[in-house]
Amino acid sequence: MQQKPEDIVVVGAGVIGLASALALLEAGRGVRVIDAGRIGGGASHGNCGTITPSHAPPLAAPGMVGVALRWMFTPDAPLYIKPRIDLHLWRWLLGFAVRCNERDWRRAAQGKAALLNDSRARLGRWVRDYGMECEFAEAGVDYVFRDTRAFAAEEHEIELLQELGVPVEAIDGARYESMEPALKRGVAGVMRFDGDAVLRPDRYVAELARLVRERGGEIVEQCAFEGVDAHRGGVSLHTSQDTIEAREVVFALGAWSPKLAAAIGFPALRNAMQPGKGYSITYSAPSLVPRRPIVLRERSVCVTAWGSGYRLGSTMEFSGYDEALNEPRLAALERGAAEYLHQPVGSEVREKWYGWRPMSIDDVPLIGRVPGRDELWIATGHGMMGVSMSAATGQLIADLVSGSTPEVDPAPYSPARFA
Fold first, then answer.
1. Does residue 30 belong to any structural domain of this protein?
2. Facing residues of 286 across strands?
3. DSSP annotation of 53
4. Is 229 exposed, middle or buried (0-12, 13-18, 19+ CB in 10 A)?
5. pTM of the full structure
6. For 241-262, b where at least 16 C-beta lie within 10 A, e where not — what string?
7. What CATH number is attached to the domain comprising 222?
8. What's residue 1's pLDDT?
9. Does 276 map to a domain?
10. Residues of the chain falling short of pLDDT 50
């Protein structure tokens, strides 16, 4: 007896795949999720959990090429490029550099802001309506500067952020020091984003998985995607466990997207994306922690405190799929925090972590139909914003797959821009 085909298979059980699965189930579709590893085993696990419309301006910004050149060969700098011969990486870097101009920067910021703003509002509703227990708090986020020139240089983004619907306030350093006892003296200024929020990302992913299962979705771990063939009425999805017949497939492969570009049937992904390695350290909480999440701007260190722990994270390393836990880069997080905070670390180290983020060449996600493949969809390229953009991405995928009118214009995220 021939097996009945699945309605939709989502490949990837990270934050984007599970958010897409939840939205598809709510749209009345049947869903099976598969993952080569375990639920939330990638970049979803160890980031700092900030939900940040404030991060709408893309990395490909005017002047970023000069910054990258100063940092790129310094192993513990916020941005590090491991020296090696990698034609795909250097092609990606060249394309990134070409986009470091005012026009492309503004266009990308507008696309990112639409997703981030929708996701911030939608995520708040999900937490409330679904009863998600993930330490969500509408806490805001503060960017803290100790260098007056760096603070003044960043203030130019305030007008753009306000145009994009992101509330932002500049705060004088002395005033902020009186508001935040966790910081050492010497604050030059702060950009405050009251519209941002925070959650515990691993718990958020676990809650998404719970909701998917409660609504009839199936999640299969240790089931690696290997290839896909189209035929009349659907596709055959080849995995390490078996071949799955399905009507449609959503690929939410994160940083593994370029590695599997040929298997998806979208070879252009190989040059459009790179894995960007990030790091974090999770501790028991010090006795004095910042009252809200903060970004130590000159050192590119994010500091987050939850009831269940305390985390330092960030950095960007282009070293391919290198699996080494780079201790000098972890130490740089602690050194950076020590410049700003009276108590930069907790007494107990609970986890040292790295993960690869899916970095697109223009820092804008790819969400939509795989070019030339009617049954295949893709949701990837969220960079450091996967958690922040998850709810909006999930809903957009559900709308596109189901033929509903999306609340967010899908045009900026079309994968066809790289075809």
1. yes
2. none
3. G
4. exposed
5. 0.95
6. eeebbbbbbbbbbbbbbbebbe
7. 3.50.50.60
8. 34
9. yes
10. 1-2
